[in-house]
Design goal:
The complex is a heterodimer of chains A (281) and B (284). Chain A has 281 residues and is of the alpha/beta class. Chain A folds into 2 domains: 213 residues, P-loop containing nucleotide triphosphate hydrolases (Rossmann fold); 56 residues, no CATH class. In chain A, a hairpin with a 2-residue loop joins strand 1 and strand 2. With 284 residues, chain B is mainly α. Chain B has one domain. Chain B has 12 helices and no strands. In chain B, helix 7 runs antiparallel to helix 10. Chain B starts with a helix and ends with a helix. The chains are: A alpha/beta (281), B mainly alpha (284). At the A-B interface, helix 2 and helix 3 of A face helix 1 and helix 5 of B. Chain B: GO terms for molecular function: ABC-type transporter activity. Chain B: This is ABC transporter permease subunit. Chain B: It comes from Solirubrobacter phytolaccae. Chain B: Keywords: Membrane, Transmembrane, Transmembrane helix.
Chain lengths: 281, 284
């Protein structure tokens, strides 16, 4: 039994909005320093799950704990940082003032040094005095990530943190997530961008219709898709073949008089698995 | 700094940055200027009346009536301030996504509500007391009259807007900004109408009208405090002067006794409990 509680532990979590059951008994855990991606279509219950974890929404039944404390309690909220999918910061505050306010709210003693470091981390170090109202949506989103990181939280709940970012901004956030992993901060990343989740997450949890439909590492959730061999007659796909079949296949093709130019092991992407499990359009 | 202080400071800083207080200050100066002009004009006419009628003190009648008018306007201005500082504090801000980043911090929802209330009520009470006292001074500058009581009515005017601020903040938990604003102004109007009915009842000697007014004022105690404050400024008047004041639009105000104070504390506590209960149950 581990002495350190999970950063996030959810057991048989259910949430009902009238006749609609948004969560139907979800179990999941995010270990210390683990980066977990949460995937699922719109309306799957991802945001509800994240909101229950940070105490914005109360569960109908089941439990959610943050660093061993009941979700929504002061102890739980002190241990987490949160960036909502649809958020706004007061447009009259500057970036530095916003972080200062949240430092007070979270009880951080990091002072100006912490604010400066976080603004640098999210590539806003050159605009600490710019007002939120004068920032692009992408800059606000990066500022949101910085405010979520104040006070060295054990768990970061990021709900679509890159939805408004350009490719450079997404790369900044990816690098940031790697940094956080290095610092031992657990992250639950709710994102629609499967490639991003595949790139950075240790584990992926897929939710559909309020239930967990798959969980595992990105490698576990991506499966073999056959071997593609390009010969003088063009590319041919051996759909059932695996990496172990390559020598035999090449031998047979050469014996049949074909020239082999390229061999590629096909793995289905996370996207393929996702579409299989939650249903594509 | 405590959580309440942080939230209250944040709310006040927002009002400063959004120039709320500049607008309020400018309009208040305009109001007090117009009031001063009105009192000056009336003071000249009172002087022309000479002795008025035997047994009636014209300065007292004119001063009490004009200050009553100023108190009505002050309560109205205080109510506007109370409503607009609080009407979107919870549901409105939650719908705009402004509330969530603050509420997920470890300060707790009760602390957040209390901080917002301290900021709004503090500003409204200070503003109302200041405008009331300024009106008293302006009245005295042109008419040689001081109200019979000064501090108690000033405090009661402040408490009246503090009750309105509590209602508006509590309403912001349950209602959208627009619905909350409408609801609070309708309650405010209902209270004033009840007070007016009571004064008419006093003039007509109608127990029914006075009972309706009393009950409504207990349900909406900002009106009870306003009525009490009105009656306090002429508490020592008697005889024909009293009669003349009662005939005016702000005479004949009802008194609610010492029990009004503990009742107001209970009333505010009940609003706080219901608001917090609803806020804790609300999904954001």
């Amino acid at each position: 039994m581990s002495a350190v509680p999970d950063a996030l532990s959810v057991t048989d979590l259910r949430k009902r909005y009238g006749a609609n059951e948004a969560l139907k008994g979800v179990d999941l855990r995010v270990g210390e320093g683990e980066l977990v991606g949460l995937l699922g279509p719109n309306g799957a219950g991802k945001s509800t799950l994240v909101k229950i974890a940070c105490g914005l929404v109360g569960p109908s039944s089941g439990t959610a704990e943050v660093a061993g404390a009941k979700a929504g309690s002061a102890a739980a909220n002190a241990a987490l940082g949160y960036l909502a999918e649809l958020f706004r910061f007061p447009d009259w505050l500057s970036a530095d003032e916003l972080l200062q306010l949240h430092q007070k709210l979270v009880g951080s003693r990091g002072g100006a040094a912490e604010r400066r470091e976080l603004l640098e981390l999210v590539a806003l170090g050159d605009v600490p005095d710019r007002r939120v109202g004068h920032m692009s949506k992408g800059m606000q989103q990066r500022l949101g990530i910085a405010q979520a990181m104040l006070g060295d939280p054990k768990l970061l709940l990021l709900d679509e943190p890159t939805s408004a970012l350009d490719p450079a901004g997404r790369r900044t956030v990816r690098e940031l997530l790697e940094t956080l992993r290095g610092r031992g901060v657990a992250v639950l990343l709710n994102s629609h961008l499967l490639s991003e989740v595949e790139l950075v997450c240790d584990r992926v949890i897929m939710i559909a219709r309020g239930e967990v439909v798959a969980a595992g590492t990105p490698a576990e959730l991506s499966h073999a898709g056959g071997i593609e061999i390009t010969t003088g007659r063009g590319a041919r796909l051996f759909a059932q073949a695996t990496r172990e079949d390559i020598p035999r296949l090449v031998r047979e093709l050469v014996q049949a008089g074909e020239d082999v130019y390229e061999i590629r092991v096909i793995r289905s992407s996370l996207e393929d698995t996702y579409l299989e499990l939650v249903g594509g359009r | 700094m405590s959580g309440v202080g942080i939230v209250a400071g944040f709310a006040l800083r927002e009002s400063v940055r959004r120039r709320v207080f500049v607008v309020v200050a400018l309009l208040t100066v305009a109001f007090l200027g117009l009031y001063g002009l009105g009192v000056w004009r009336v003071s000249r006419e009172v002087t022309e009346f000479g002795d008025f009628q035997a047994g009636v003190e014209p300065d007292t009648v004119a001063g009490a009536t004009l200050l009553g008018l100023a108190m009505f306007a002050t309560l109205f201005l205080g109510a506007i301030l109370a409503v607009f500082l609080t009407l979107n504090a919870v549901r409105g801000d939650a719908e705009r996504g402004l509330l969530q980043p603050i509420v997920v911090r470890p300060l707790g929802r009760a602390t957040f509500l209390l901080g917002r209330y301290v900021a709004a009520a503090g500003v409204c009470v200070a503003y109302t007391v200041f405008v009331f006292l300024a009106s008293v001074v302006i009245t005295h500058l042109f008419i040689d009259w001081w109200p019979d009581r000064l501090l108690t009515p000033a405090l009661q005017m402040g408490v009246a807007v503090a009750v309105l601020a509590a209602l508006a903040l509590g309403g912001s938990v349950l209602l959208s900004s627009t619905a909350n604003g409408i609801a609070i102004f309708m309650l405010f109007g209902a209270g004033l109408t009840a007070g007016l009915l009571g004064q008419i009842g006093e003039a007509l000697d109608s127990d029914t009208l006075q009972d309706v007014s009393q009950v409504t004022s207990w349900i909406l105690p900002f009106e009870a405090h306003y009525q009490d404050a009105l009656s306090e400024i002429t508490a020592d008047s008697s005889g024909f002067t009293r009669y003349a004041i009662n005939l005016g639009p702000f005479g004949g105000a009802q008194e609610f006794g010492a029990f009004l104070w503990p009742y107001t504390v209970l009333y505010l506590s009940a609003i706080a409990l219901v608001s917090l209960w609803a806020f804790r149950r609300r999904d954001l």
